[in-house]
Amino acid sequence: MNAYEFLFFSDNLIPSPDKLTALDVLRKSLALGTNNSCIYLFTFELIEVGTSVEFSIGPVQQKNLGLKKPIVQLEICDNKKLVVLCDNLLQVLSIPSLEVSYNATKLKNVTSFQVHNALYEKSLELYIGTKKKSIVLLQLGDSKPQLIREISLPEVPLSFRVDGDALCVGLWSRYLLVNCAPDGTQQQQELFSLDDGQRVTPLVELVEKGEFLVTGMNNLGIFVSAKDGSSRRPPLQLDSNTLALACASPYVLSLSDEFLTVHSGLHYERQQVQTHSVNGGLSLALAREFARCGSLSHIVLIACQSGDLQAALPLPWYSQVEQMLREGQVDEAMRVAEHARQSASDAGQSSPELLAKFRRIQQAAGLACLRRATSATAKSAGQSVAEDAQKATQYLVEGRIDLRHLLGLCPGLLPPSGSVELPAPPDGLSQLAELCRAEPDRMNLLKAFLLELLFKYRVSRFTGDLRREADTALLKLCSELRPGQTETLIYSELDCDSADCLAFLASSGRHHARALLLRWLGRSAEACQVWRQLLDDSEAGDPQFPGVDYFAEYVTTLAAADADDLFWPHAEYLLAKEPERHLRVLTGCGLPPSDIVTRLESRAPKALLLYLEQHLLLLLDETDREEDRKLDGGDERLHTRLGALYLDAIEEAGVDSDSDAAASLRARLLTFLRRSKVYRAQFLLGRLQTLQSRSGDNGAVLLLPHLAELRARCGDINGALRVLLLDLGDCDAAAELCSAQSNPGPYWSALLAICLSGEHRDRLLGSAVRLLNRPDVPADGARVLPLLPANYPVGPLRPFLCSALRRALHRRRSACLAKGLAVAAQLTLSHQLASLPNCRSSISLTETTRCAVCNRRFDESSPSPSVPSTSAGAAPAALAFVLTSTGQPAHLRCCPWLHEPAAANCSNSASSSAGSPTEAAKTSA
């Protein structure tokens, strides 16, 4: 890559035998110094004709200082002054007359200088390095020079540069960093030492604000921070015997007697950008603030020993960037472009044209990274491919590339017609398109990159007005590369060309994705047809189709939308294939059970049994968890219908069949009969007895448990017990039947009576004894013992007898305890009665006496119905009274805790106002 274009500036600018020793350029002014203290001042113009560039040199001004020594340093100031250093003597000359300016400006013992401030015509501030081992800041004017600041140094300063209040000074043996505070204090810091054996000419140059560049050992150019002396960038490898440095951001130019080398301060991995051969290089001069093409630029002039001048013109930054992109130096190119854009922005020269040019460069850089990421040799380098893809994404998005340019690289991604006019393609697009067409593997990598790009920036401004094109391409790529994410993509507010996508998915064999898109578009009937074709035609299947269970789940959701046209045709299709597996289509559809039963009776009778079984047993499970809950849809008709279907299925499978299906049906029927509580037991009992009569003896025996359950449900407990005991011999089932009743005592007695009486006593005696010994048998021993044979041993009955004796003793002792407690309570009440107040004084009832409870007079209330009518001459029942604990009378009916006999006594005691108060008090107690 070339950063500069080298031109011949001029020759024979100074007469022979003078030799050029120093030069400086400011804008379009050029000052030259010779070895015999002569000064030449020129003006020049840059003439651009097409692609060629020439220099036009104006009239010359000449002056001889008369010192016969070479001019070491000179600098053109903004206030039209020329500062010259020759023979350690510093002078200030006016431009263009080259006459001495100011009074007493011939300063002696000066080693180097730097202009600090030259904004005023009548004053000039200079930093001056002296042989007195110091650097002074002087203000020169018409009067005597004024000392503003003085910095003492350990050695004579050879070169230095100033950046604000910071100075970087080069001495013979070291470099120093001096920071001057506003209060006048100074802080000196030694940066590093120079080896005496390898003498290095100390050169200091200001790179940018806050950073210096100095020459060190081993031909290194070291960057130094003006704040703390640290180095924030790696050093530059300079040429040997470096004579001069110049910094034209972002490049650093170093001059030796043979080469001019251009270094980049941005490209750490490739610092040397360009090398130019020179014949006897002497010095460099940077044309500061040179206006070219309407913007500030810089020209570097190179002085040679022959007296010739060469010019280094910087190439336009975009030309440099394009050249680096062509060479594959993407990172370097983007650093240069970003630096140029930032510099123009800082200088206030940013424009829409500059921004558009920068975005075109970003697009080209992104395509270059994309070419690198999709190259055939990049497959094995996974990390580098990922980095290149990430950079390509960043550059393409920031460069605002039109998405259709990228999608057009892959045939078939764009819909047939676009919504926005397509702009001009970016640089490098055609090259990438040719590579992708020639290499299928590169095309696959490109598709993977586009998929990641579209997924990442789907909702960002990257798509802009092209959301439809982006989603269309994204769906196609996702169905091809990531089919597992297609469903999620479709249901995420997709905005695509549906006709184009459906055709693409059909042609590429992505039938499941096509059905998903049809479903999302609201075309459920077409989606179901696609899925049914996948189920029926295994050869044309789609590996991404989850299978029949997925289709069944979707069909279940169609019941709420359109049951007749959508749900039932596909539900019947599934039930015809595997009714047991797809019965959840009916149980989860949400349709009324009555409608489902009506439909299944006429079209799928085999599925009706399974549906009722699953639906009703599910309701029974919910009822078991919440006993008081009313069954929803579990009415008598459906339950009875399920029982009848069980019997029909058992008859069809064969009542006495030994097959697993018949055994399963009998077991399911018995479970249903035991759990359900709302079927018509009498109807099912008749059907069962009819089925037993038509079947053989073996079949009738297999249905005996069901017969016992139905007889018990009909209330014929004794009949059920006889079936369980006499026909089946299942004592445990008979015992469970008795225990399940609300009042099990009589049923246990009937069970024991069947076992211990009649012709079956000998056969069932052992079972009866085992039942008697159960801990939960509520049988009365006095009634059971007479039923047992007189010669039956007591040993086997010991548990029962102990339990019966224990219960009898418990009842007797409980009765004695209750009687004792009653007597104690009566005695306690008698004691309380004797201690009641006013119980020994007379009680008088008058017309104004009121009840202490209801506050009514005793003659106002009707007789209490609980008080028996009195005989003639006795006091009315309304006058019967009791005394409260406070001694006040109250109606007998207002004290419901009293008994009728006490009321009779109370009425007798109230026959006269002088009745016995003791009796009334007892009644009250």
UniProtKB/TrEMBL annotation:
The keyword Protein transport applies. GO terms for biological process: autophagy; endosomal vesicle fusion; protein transport. This is CNH domain-containing protein. PANTHER family: CNH DOMAIN CONTAINING, TRANSFORMING GROWTH FACTOR-BETA RECEPTOR-ASSOCIATED PROTEIN 1. GO terms for cellular component: cytoplasm; membrane. Keywords: Cytoplasm, Protein transport, Transport. Residues 17-291 form the CNH domain. The keyword Cytoplasm applies. It is found in: Cytoplasm. Residues 906-925 are annotated as: Disordered. PROSITE patterns: CNH (PS50219).
